[in-house]
Task: structure prediction
Amino acid sequence: MTDKYAVIGNPIGHTKSPLIHSTFARQTGQDIAYGVIEGPLDGFCQTVDSFRAAGGCGLNVTAPFKLDAFAYATDLTEQAQLAGAVNALKFEGDQVFAQNFDGIGLTRDIVHNLGFPMQGKRVLLLGAGGAARGALLPILAQQPAKLLIVNRTESKAHALVAQFSNFGELAAASYPELSASPETFDVVINATSASLRGELPPVHTDVLSPDGLAYELVYGKGLTPFLRLAQGTGVRRLADGVGMLVEQAAEAFAWWRGVRPDTRTVITTLTVPLV
Ligand code: ATR
Result:
């Protein structure tokens, strides 16, 4: 029997998930149907209840429902609990298993696809919103020498440090403090939402190292202001979040189906050149 999966969000017209998952299914010989659900903003639970009643096995969850999915779950992984948000659900009887694969997708892309091990490296994370929070545990699991969180609202960065201090070495600073310090970083990750509006976080070019990696979580927009800044500073390795998108999908697919798909061809298909 064909197993049913879907992505739920609102709006959802832009989603790449059906293309990604149907490619994974073909590649691995899995018999699944993958749909798209535009959930009503005030009706997440009812929509998911209906999907389950119709035999749905799992969902990818995107904005604005990641907190609703967190509340809907009966079994949250530690990563989902610490991320405070959920991007994948798996249904088994009355149980609703929940995970957040975004940060794992990010670190898999950086370490495996881009060949940039973070162990012993200096990592700078810009932003302290939902995306940054979801990335923290997977980044700390890579055992960087230092993880510095810098956010426009500095108190949010300090709150994350307090929450994650049991899991590794991390610190917080403001943008002015960052500019005043002579430190450079091997990996600089833009986890702010600034690029979605064509804005640049107030980061000083001195923090970027030419031999380092500048990683933009936003994908498909070519050279964002952050990546343009990094390129202008001479940073040779630039990446956007397309690999993270495909890797988090692969993690969900493996979690649902017990088989890990190959991500390379899908990443190549979805890559928008950084120009
Ligand atoms: P997301 O789910 O994408 O992480 P979010 O939780 O709203 O969205 O968080 C957005 C993040 O981008 C925040 O860290 C925000 O900084 P504040 O906490 O100070 O609001 C950051 N951000 C958004 N626009 C920015 C800009 N122009 N410069 C710097 N940081 C910005």
Q: What stands out?
A: The pocket of 2'-monophosphoadenosine-5'-diphosphate is lined by residues 127-131, 151-153, 156, 192-194, 199, 201 (CB under 6 Å).
